[in-house]
């Protein structure tokens, strides 16, 4: 494989803290919870269970009353991205440092070439920016922002030689990154040939352009114009169109940053007829805040919330999106972390179309979802692990090295304290910006320890990341989760990262299937709702809608809104009162 610069790992990182025991915790995987200790050696999980035999001198972390979960995987970040005449504030060091602080131990960033630029040249630029800075492992998606036979050839090379298995196309950003439908057909078809995964930014760029002209002509220049130019219907139309194109090209599809109820409805309908898996991603921003901020009289405040697709003013949106995530209408949650400074956002002071698009989220994604979904009883911890980690690992072919706490997996582990209480604020966050879209949100539940490749990088709340500790993760194509119709192999004895599987891509997998069966195909691929199947960690899958908290006394307590604004305190009783379990 020919790739960009090979990085040297400093000696002190190779030798320190190579043995670690996490004791007395409840290990949460996407398919179950068990009371077990976890022994880590040389960056790999070596044993999971009780009464383990451990070498002397091993550091022990006591995880009593804590959850031991796979480190988060954020499938959607933009570090050191230049867009709309500005550069994101978070680079690969500060961005991954913020990720680790919040419990995320793998990120997947987007290489976004300019129109006409070689995809491989852009990819090499990204590797150069990232390799020596990342504090955790990372992978890369590549944007296809223009089309020609040479682009197709480079897509083949990226898959064959550079460890890329996903390509993002844009149906918006007319005049910069947008492709037309014919080009989308060709990209999706090429992805299907390469057994790669097409990803789509679904918004109708032509409608946005026309609406924008009308709004500006009418004198609407404030950030409110951003959402007005691209309402829910504009997103839902593109979701539907992308699904139709993918279906016609017999390609699976991953829809990034789904922001509205209408878009989720369009996805739900498409699922009934789709031949291949469709994966829906939403964002921490959608779950943790809303589009009412666009009408805030303060430009700085309103502009800080501008991203595309936008947050929705409909106040029911966050709850509907969480419900969709919990019920598997959406499969995972990313951050789309794309932070710009106040100065850069100011570019759009007199014209909302010039506000660089993007918000924070990589640090707070997990705590926000925990607070809004688990503490409210809408989601159990297993599903939390699925949508924040395991499903991303499976979709991008990183499973079972990533996304689970199991023997043989990478030691990317979070010790999650469900009683740790703090209030999110820009003053305390680790981003390179001074605004946080979740400012003032009180969360109960956050990481106490974060272990990255066996190294304790958040140590009882103290952040000790190492710049350059992370490595590039090649993501092989032909992911069994997408192209086999079967869940991937078990962690034990299976190849790490590169799960080779038999080619299985009939032109039409729909033959003889009813729409309901097709929906089931998608549900099976999503891997969480079919009873009786064994799962990649060898456990039985849950019945639809049923919690599987075997061996566990874990109890999800009601959220209580309080006025405490301390950054980080441990609550004596669980939110909502005492219960017999973990508390
Ligand atoms: O507003 C956003 N989402 N900025 C990042 C670029 C993209 O479209 O993902
Ligand atoms: Zn996008
Ligand atoms: Zn993005």
UniProtKB/TrEMBL annotation:
Reaction catalysis annotation: 5,6-dihydrouracil + H2O = 3-(carbamoylamino)propanoate + H(+)
Organism per entry: Bicyclus anynana
Gene3D superfamilies in the record: Metal-dependent hydrolases (3.20.20.140), Urease, subunit C, domain 1 (2.30.40.10)
Taxonomic lineage: Eukaryota, Metazoa, Ecdysozoa, Arthropoda, Hexapoda
GO biological process: pyrimidine nucleobase catabolic process
Region described as Disordered: 484-514, 556-583
Name of this chain's protein: dihydropyrimidinase
Residue stretches making up the Amidohydrolase-related domain: 67-456
Cofactor(s) needed for function: Zn(2+)
């Amino acid at each position: 494989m020919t790739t960009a610069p090979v990085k040297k790992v400093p000696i002190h990182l190779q030798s320190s803290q190579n043995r670690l025991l996490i004791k007395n915790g409840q290990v949460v995987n996407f398919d179950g919870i068990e009371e077990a200790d976890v022994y880590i050696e040389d960056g790999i999980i070596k044993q999971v269970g009780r009464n383990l035999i451990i070498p002397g001198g091993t550091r022990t972390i006591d995880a009593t009353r804590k959850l031991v979960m796979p480190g988060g995987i954020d499938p959607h970040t933009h570090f050191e991205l230049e867009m709309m005449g500005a550069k994101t504030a978070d680079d690969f060091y500060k961005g991954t440092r913020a990720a680790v602080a919040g419990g995320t131990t793998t990120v997947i960033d987007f290489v976004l070439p300019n129109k006409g630029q070689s995809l491989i040249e852009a990819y090499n630029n990204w590797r150069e920016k990232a390799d020596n800075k990342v504090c955790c492992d990372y992978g890369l998606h590549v944007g296809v922002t223009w089309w020609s036979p040479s682009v197709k050839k480079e897509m083949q090379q990226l898959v064959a030689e550079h460890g890329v298995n996903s390509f993002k196309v844009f149906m918006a950003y007319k005049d910069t990154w947008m492709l037309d439908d014919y080009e989308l057909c060709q990209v999706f078809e090429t992805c299907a040939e390469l057994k790669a995964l097409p990803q789509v930014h679904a918004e109708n760029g032509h409608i946005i352009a026309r609406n924008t002209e009308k709004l500006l002509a009418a004198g609407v220049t404030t950030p409110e114009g951003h959402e007005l130019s691209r309402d829910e219907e504009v997103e839902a139309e593109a979701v539907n169109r992308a699904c139709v194109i993918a279906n016609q090209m017999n390609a699976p599809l991953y829809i990034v940053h789904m922001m509205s109820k209408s878009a989720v409805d369009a996805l739900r309908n498409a699922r009934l007829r789709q031949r291949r898996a469709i994966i829906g991603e939403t964002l921490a921003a959608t779950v943790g805040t809303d589009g009412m901020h666009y009408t805030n009289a303060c430009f700085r405040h309103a502009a800080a919330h501008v991203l595309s697709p936008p947050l929705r003013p409909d106040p029911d949106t966050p709850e509907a999106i969480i419900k969709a995530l919990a019920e598997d209408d959406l499969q995972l949650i990313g951050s789309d972390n794309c932070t710009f400074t106040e100065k850069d956002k100011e570019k759009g002071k007199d014209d909302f179309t010039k506000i660089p698009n993007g918000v924070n989220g990589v640090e707070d994604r997990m705590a926000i979802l925990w607070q809004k979904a688990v503490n409210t009883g809408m989601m159990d911890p297993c599903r939390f692990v699925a949508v924040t980690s395991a499903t991303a690992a499976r979709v991008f072919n990183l499973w079972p090295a990533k996304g689970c706490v199991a023997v043989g997996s990478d030691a990317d582990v979070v010790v999650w304290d469900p009683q740790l209480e703090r209030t999110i604020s820009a003053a305390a966050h680790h981003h390179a910006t001074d605004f946080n879209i979740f400012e003032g949100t009180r969360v109960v539940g956050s990481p106490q320890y974060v272990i990255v490749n066996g190294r304790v990088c958040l140590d009882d709340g103290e952040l000790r990341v190492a710049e350059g500790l992370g490595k590039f993760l090649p993501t092989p194509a032909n992911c069994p989760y997408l192209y086999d119709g079967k869940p991937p192999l078990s962690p034990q004895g299976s190849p790490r990262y590169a799960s080779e599987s038999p080619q299985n891509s009939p032109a039409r997998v729909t033959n003889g299937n009813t729409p309901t069966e097709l929906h089931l195909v998608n549900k099976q691929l999503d891997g969480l709702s079919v009873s009786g199947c064994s799962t990649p960690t060898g456990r039985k899958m849950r019945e639809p809608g049923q919690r599987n908290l075997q061996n566990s006394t874990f109890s999800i307590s009601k959220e209580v809104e309080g006025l405490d604004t301390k950054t980080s305190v441990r609550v004596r009783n669980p939110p909502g009162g005492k219960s017999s379990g973990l508390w």
